[in-house]
């Protein structure tokens, strides 16, 4: 395919060298820092990920520092980035690198991809940027650029599409500058060939872009329809005792919030009012052993929190209680625990936790 567009790779690299953003991970070839940046930037925009990268680099300047950290501290520092399995895998892999590889990252794509949380994209990025291995990266930006320029309508989230785009990216890769090429095509997709209303007139590929020629820019890339979004009504019970204590539990169940802390939760498929909440068996189980003196709705309307596969409608209920379990914690401890971002916002806003 690339033979139909002479000079694609050279044009791209030339554009990149003139237009690239100054980012800290572009000033190093340290595989630890490149790995850290790539994990943070998975499913995260640079503008959002950059402050987290700086926080992690400051807190854990070496892979040994990250390996020796407590998981709860890592999760707390990650709070707000979402997809918390990335943070758990980050910590696990740091421990693996520190203990099994004596702090040295594997030097090839085939060994990098064996690490937990490292897939094709991340392994290719580290291998090409740090070790000059000719391994092409394929992410959302790359899919967008290649599908439009070369006119590929194979769904990007299909096995056929993944194979087709990987092969094309590999064919286009500049063997003696693999890291530069990979960063160039990702930067071009992020900065110029953006999802909506890109500046096609001033594009370096305007004379050759298939999508521009066929007025199909908005239709590419193609993605097969997502599975149906499930709706949950989350009712968080916030117990408050007279001696300034509350209760949270750590989630041990598999899921995106695994190992994060949360207030007692009742998950329903429809909303609850105060009457139905008090009668709900889940509420009675959660508060067994407590004396609930009063309970009040905190937010009048449920807060919508959208995840990739779920819509969560969240209501906070403030319960004045006595007889909390021995694991109850003081209000001052709550802000130190890693929690889902929606709970973090509530904790920041709710007055008792600011005392």
CATH architecture of the largest domain: Orthogonal Bundle
What value does the Rg take, in angstroms? 24 Å
| Average pLDDT over all residues | 91
- Within CATH, the superfamily of the largest domain carries the name Hypothetical protein, domain 2
- Strand fraction: 5-15%
Largest sheet: 5 strands, mixed
CATH domain class name of the largest domain: Mainly Alpha
CATH topology of the largest domain: Endonuclease III, domain 1
Total E-strand runs? 9
Number of spatially distinct domains: 2
Low-confidence stretches: none
The helical percent reads 40-55%
Note the run of SSEs as H and E: HHHHHHHHHHHHEEEEEHHEEEEHH
Quickly give the structural class. Answer: alpha+beta
Helical stretch tally: 16
Distance between the termini: 64 Å
Shape: globular
Q: Which characteristics define this entry?
A:
355 residues, alpha+beta, Endonuclease III, domain 1, Nucleoside Triphosphate Pyrophosphohydrolase, 5-stranded mixed sheet, two-stranded antiparallel sheet, globular
How would you characterize the overall build of this protein?
The chain has 355 residues and is of the alpha+beta class. It folds into two domains: 2-219, Endonuclease III, domain 1, CATH 1.10.340.30; 230-354, Nucleoside Triphosphate Pyrophosphohydrolase, CATH 3.90.79. It has helices at residues 8-19, 31-41, 46-59, 63-67, 71-78, 85-100, 109-112, 120-131, 140-150, 159-172, 178-191, 210-213, 274-279, 281-286, 331-334, 341-349, and strands spanning 230-241, 245-246, 249-250, 261-262, 265-268, 291-297, 303-306, 310-322, 329-330. Strands 1, 5, 6, 7 and 8 form a five-stranded mixed sheet that branches. It has a two-stranded antiparallel ribbon with strand order 2-9. A hairpin with a 3-residue loop joins strand 7 and strand 8. Helix 1 (8-19) crosses helix 11, helix 2 packs across helix 3 (46-59) and helix 9 (140-150) crosses helix 11.
């Amino acid at each position: 395919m690339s033979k139909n567009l002479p000079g694609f790779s050279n044009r791209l690299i030339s554009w990149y060298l003139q237009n690239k953003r100054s980012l800290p991970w572009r000033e190093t070839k340290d595989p630890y820092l490149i790995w850290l940046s790539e994990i943070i930037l998975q499913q995260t925009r640079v503008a959002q990920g950059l402050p987290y990268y700086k926080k992690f680099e400051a807190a854990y300047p070496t892979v040994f520092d990250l390996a020796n950290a407590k998981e709860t501290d890592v999760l707390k520092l990650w709070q707000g980035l979402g997809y918390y399995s990335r943070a758990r895998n980050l910590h696990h892999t740091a421990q693996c690198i520190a203990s099994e590889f004596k702090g040295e990252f594997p030097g090839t794509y085939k060994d990098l991809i064996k690490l937990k949380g490292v897939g094709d994209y991340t392994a290719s990025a580290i291998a090409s940027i740090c070790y000059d291995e000719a391994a092409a990266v394929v992410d959302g930006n790359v899919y967008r650029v290649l599908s439009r320029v070369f006119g590929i309508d194979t769904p990007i989230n299909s096995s056929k599409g993944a194979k087709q785009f990987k092969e094309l990216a590999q064919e286009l890769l500049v063997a003696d500058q693999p890291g530069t090429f990979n960063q160039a095509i990702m930067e071009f997709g992020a900065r110029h060939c953006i999802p909506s209303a890109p500046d096609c007139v001033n594009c370096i590929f305007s004379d050759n872009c298939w999508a521009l020629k066929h007025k199909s820019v908005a239709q590419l890339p193609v993605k097969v329809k997502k599975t149906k979004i499930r709706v949950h009504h989350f009712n968080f019970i916030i117990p408050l005792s007279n001696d300034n204590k509350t209760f949270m539990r750590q989630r041990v169940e598999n899921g995106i919030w695994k190992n994060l802390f949360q207030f007692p939760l009742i998950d329903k498929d429809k909303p609850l009012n105060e009457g139905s909440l008090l009668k709900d068996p889940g509420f009675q189980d959660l508060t067994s052993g407590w004396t609930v003196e009063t309970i009040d709705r905190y937010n009048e309307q449920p807060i919508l929190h959208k995840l990739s596969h779920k819509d969560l409608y969240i209501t906070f209920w403030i319960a004045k209680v006595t007889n909390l379990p021995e694991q109850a914690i003081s209000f001052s401890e709550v802000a130190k625990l890693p929690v889902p971002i929606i709970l973090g916002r509530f904790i920041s806003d709710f007055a008792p936790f600011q005392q």
